[in-house]
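Listing S7. Sequence submitted for prediction.
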Amino acid sequence: PPGTATGRRSSINHVLSDRRDHGDMIVGTAIGDERLHSLYHYWLDKRQGRTMPGRADLDPLEIPGRLWPHVMLLEVIPGPAGPRFRYRRAGAVFWRALGREPTGLHLDEVVPEVAGYPDYVLCIYRETFQRRLPMYTENQLILRDHPQPVTVKRVTLPLSSDGKTIDRVMTGHVFEHEQMACDWDGSRVHELKECARIVLTD
């Protein structure tokens, strides 16, 4: 099935052609969107030999304007049941898809309750938090009344002020659908399929 390691191995081979299995994770370098690839390499440049950069290392003026609509910044809020994630900045592509501006709200308060999507997205952020490594994920949202699914691609990039504890996450988010720019209603989604989940390596 798509959500398992076996399912991921059989999906979108054009994206995952250079990945490798490492125990409980799949690692690789391929990213299925040029904008997300650029954001990931910006994050790599800011590491400067460390495991990850911090929020203070990021300069908004250095991030190309074409990427900004796809960029989100989330604050990590520790808790006994696991970390929550609060939006500090959300690109236009994301809040237009949601139908509202999510800044200041938590992920679980914002992502539509359809087809298990909130749990799926939260799992990605928590895996990034636990592994302390960047990830590329790709999924499809199957719509009730349209033959073409929405393809969602994202890079999830950890940030740390002290070089150890992740306190922010920068994410690049791309929606692919012929009508996504102007016609999006989460209630139309009835199924979610994961296509790829990769721990990124240099």
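Caption to Listing S7: primary sequence and predicted structure tokens for the chain studied. The helical segments are 5-9, 34-47, 92-98, 107-110, 117-131. Residues 123 and 155 are 14 Å apart (CA to CA).
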